[in-house]
Amino acid sequence: MRIFSKLISHIFNPLFFPLVGSILYFFITPKFNPPEAKRLILLAILILTVIIPFIFFLLLRNLGWITNNGLTHIKERKIPLYIFIIVIYITIMKITTFDFSIELYYYFIGILGALLSCLIMIYFNFKASMHMMGICGLTTFILGLSFHYEINITLGLSLLVLITGIVATARLYLKSHTYPEIIIGCFIGVITQFLTFGYWL
Question: Which sign, positive or negative, has the C-alpha torsion 170, 21, 133, 157?
Answer without folding.
Answer: negative
